[in-house]
Amino acid sequence: MSEIIEREKKVFIQFFNRYPIVIERAKGCWIFDEDGRKYLDLIAGIACVSVGHSNEYVIERVREQAEKLIHVSNLFYTKPQVELAEKLAEISGMDRFFFTNSGTESVEAALKIARRVTSRKKFVSFTGDFHGRSMGALSVTWKEKFREPFMPLIEPVSFAEFNSLESLENAVDGETAAVIMEPVQGEAGVYPAKKEFMKRLFELKEEHDFLIIFDEVQTGFGRTGEWFAKDIYGFEPDIMTLAKAMGNGFPIGAVAVSEEVHSGIQKGDHGSTFGGNPLACSASLATIEYMEQNNLLENSRKMGERFRKGLEGFDFVQDVRGFGLMVGLSVSDAKGFSQFAMGRGVLVNATSERDVRIIPPLTISREEVDLALSVFEEFAH
To answer: What are phi and psi of 49, to 5 degrees?
Structure first.
């Protein structure tokens, strides 16, 4: 057992179940442990490292910003914050942005905004949805084992069955402030919303006048082969939450709103000391620029398709799903599959007893995809 692992047990709050690997460094799609062994990383810091580990373009931009200004708080204006908001408006089609430090903070802000703008209290979420671990985000997260120890949470919240039209219709009403959903459920194992389900959701919005929040914390910034999963479905939410790949691993998130929603917000409704600090915004701008310059949305689509086609050829794989480089598969023993792959130098994430998630950096090459598939083929035998 590593000395670092033993030291961690004595000083760190034991919230996490970790892989028994101490990571020392990483480059591109590869990470290296303290003993020098390398692993092909198909987890990417849980879909965060979008343009590859230790990306030199991002590092240089962060270094340049760190030499000028790291933090002054939101009592003042800073250029990187405004430039990032302008860039996000360009690629997302949303109108206004507020910066946070994480996905769960983005969800908290979104829930507050929805209540303020609608003057309603009720939220509707879905079976399988994961929105975060803080008290508001936890309230709209499906898994009871996450919620039950911390009751009472925010109320009222109803959970409709994901992709069930009847359940959705029964859950929403004139008291609903907002429906929050992952267009593609990530922590559940990569399960996309059906297009007819999405269509019906927006029809019900017109009927009951609630807001729609898209949680794109995991699906955003090229993960699905488009800038955002909403672009696949062709529907525009009222509010959108962002984080993860937004800064290539640097902690940053955002909540985006339409101009109409923004008109109902008042100064003082929300705030953040660190949210949108110059260093984080510079990291995010550099990440987006690198994605544009290197056609990573197209690479996400092509390499994701290569993964899915390869996986569909294995008898032990029961189901393959997803968009771009957000790939889910079902097997009889997900944990056993992930441990087998790790033992052969490939890291994947088992999200349940039978579901596996593949979410590598968007820079992954054809050769690296084929290497992973060759390891998976070994599992079949």
So the answer is: -85, 85
